[in-house]
């Protein structure tokens, strides 16, 4: 039985045990989502659940790889929440074009791409072929609020009149 992306999204969030609040708040003088033509840009999303950061610290030191992958999944779920809110339904996502993954990590940690695999799994599971994307994963010294991971993305959407 084929499920629509909105159903798959809800099932994935429930399976990993993190229901993302659709009322995601912006913490500064910017917007979380900008649509321009058929492209939708989603600002960086950290693994915040409700009012708390679910994963903080340096991956490879205070945060294990599996936990960092889970953090990346939460970031991806938050990004999809914003896309869903902007587009009305995830069925309008034609393609995830680009994902950037930022990992706050120790100097010795080199499995940065494997952290990004957590986010990529979400996009592939929820959106199928439309979730396959280009990706850059980088290790960084610090992230907002000591988040272990942050992602942003660019998606292509079907026009409203299509």
TrEMBL record:
<protein>
    <submittedName>
        <fullName>Endoribonuclease L-PSP</fullName>
    </submittedName>
</protein>
<dbReference type="Pfam" id="PF14588">
    <property type="entry name" value="YjgF_endoribonc"/>
</dbReference>
<feature type="domain" description="Endoribonuclease L-PSP/chorismate mutase-like">
    <location>
        <begin position="28"/>
        <end position="154"/>
    </location>
</feature>
<dbReference type="InterPro" id="IPR013813">
    <property type="entry name" value="Endoribo_LPSP/chorism_mut-like"/>
</dbReference>
<dbReference type="InterPro" id="IPR035959">
    <property type="entry name" value="RutC-like_sf"/>
</dbReference>
